[in-house]
Amino acid sequence: MEFRFLGRSGLKVSAVSYGNWVTHGSQVEAEQAQRCVRAALDAGITTFDTADTYANTKAESILGEALAGERRESLEIFTKVYFPTGPGGPNDTGLSRKHIHESINGSLKRLKTDYVDLYQAHRFDHFTPLEETMESFADVVRQGKALYIGVSEWTAEQLRAGHALARELRFPFVSNQPQYNALHRVIEAEVVPTSYELGISQVVYSPIAQGVLTGKYLPGQPPPEGSRATDQASGAGFIKRLVDNDELLARVQKLAPLAEAEGLTMAQLAIAWVLNNENVATAITGGSRPEQVTANAEAAGKKLSEETLRGIDEALGDAVVTDPGLTARSAPTKRLT
Asked: What's the confidence (pLDDT) of residue 236?
């Protein structure tokens, strides 16, 4: 396993991490989830990412059970706050002081730990003063409940504002968690250069485009039985736009010979492509079966040739999404409850 520093901090994370966004508590039963976590640990993965909103807190509980008994100091556990949890009351969402402090306490209880290594704002909150949010994160760090603070899907401007307050309040703001893969490159124009400047790393989710870059979805054919695209409980709606696009799927199939030439599966090629960006500290991978987790981890440390990188760009062509404005549109602009 390769390890990388998280932002301009001294914390190292595994270049391939394990996340349980649409698996634990929904797609995968607890026993199978524990096997997947064990496979991750056996493969050298030490970094685990979750969020309180995943399966409405169930994902955190399952991850906590799966990691119970492991040496805490040998793990990096990440979670997030923002989206609704519980019954969805008026204060069960957002980045207010109330929601942040209640959420970190609930997360720690479910994860069976005294602290998380990284606590992340799951989106930017347009309805809470940024000062209130960052002061609350500073309190969480000073209370020893989180070691570092990060965010998810913040724009370059939002990162600058948040980082300035973090410096003023003297707590470590080290990461941003965006969607990033060979098909979705919206962070490259603005977020990545700003992050380099500020000393912030990317903690990337969806490096294989939720399975699309594995090549298992074929143009003109229905999605394979049991795949994410057929399971409404595991995020089918998130990838409908991709699997319904035959032209895009045909372009993805052109990646197969490039992967073979590198001695990789198409999924490993996609993960290695993401890790080729030096601003990426870790690529969060999932998996509903232990063998998937093991195979994903093997992409760590794989360096792609310049010829392969050019070939990926040529194969995907205008199917690649690059509009930096999509980051701003990822955060709700009206109250969820």
From this structure: 55
**In the chain, which residues have pLDDT < 70?**
22-29, 224-239, 334-337
Q: Any catalytic annotation for residue 54?
A: yes
Phi, psi values for residue 130, rounded to 5°: -60, -35
pLDDT of residue 23: 59
- Domains recognised in the chain with CATH numbers: 3-328 (3.20.20.100)
The Cα–Cα gap between 142 and 222 comes to: 52
- Contact indicator for 127, 165 with CB cutoff of 8 Å: no
Q: What is Dmax (Cα atoms) for the chain? A: 55
Instruction: Write down the catalytic residue from 54, 82, 180, 217.
Output: 54
What sign results for the dihedral spanned by CA atoms 89, 83, 17, 295? positive
Torsion (CA) 148, 183, 317, 251 in degrees, nearest 10? 150
pTM (global) more than 0.70 = yes
Tell me, what's the pLDDT at 287?
Answer: 82
Distance of CA 183 to the CA centre of its chain: 16
